[in-house]
From TrEMBL:
Residue span(s) of domain Ribulose bisphosphate carboxylase large subunit C-terminal: 81-111
InterPro entries, per database record: RuBisCO, RuBisCO_lsu_C, RuBisCO_lsu_C_sf, RuBisCO_lsu_fd_N, RuBisCO_lsu_N_sf
Entry annotated with the keyword Lyase: yes
UniProt protein name: Ribulose bisphosphate carboxylase large chain
EC number(s) on file: 4.1.1.39
Entry similarity comment: Belongs to the RuBisCO large chain family. Type I subfamily.
Taxon lineage: Eukaryota, Viridiplantae, Streptophyta, Embryophyta, Tracheophyta
A Pfam family: RuBisCO_large
GO BP terms: photorespiration; reductive pentose-phosphate cycle
Highest taxon in the source lineage: Eukaryota
Keyword match Lyase: yes
Compartments, record wording: Plastid, Chloroplast
Amino acid sequence: LTSLDRYKGRCYDIEPVPGEETQFIAYVAYPLDLFEEGSVTNLFTSIVGNVFGFKALRALRLEDLRIPPAYSKTFQGPPHGIQVERDKLNKYGRPLLGCTIKPKLGLSAKN
């Protein structure tokens, strides 16, 4: 077994949002041992995957993400360049974004 302390995230600072009594900015750090090298999917799933399933949260927004350069270098990138993707989609001059639809996120079945 491993020590939980080695793998848990740590909130190292909390600041109030100016002018908002019930809103705060939390600064959280996770140990790199939690993340699979070279896997963007693993990284983002670990950080934001099921966070919205926590009933204690009414609202949450990711403001910033800092990745250590040594970890960033483990990402190989796509097998071909962005131009190939843009040509396939016929989309130019704008960001290409994507997501996985999860039934737990977004509108309720009633809405």
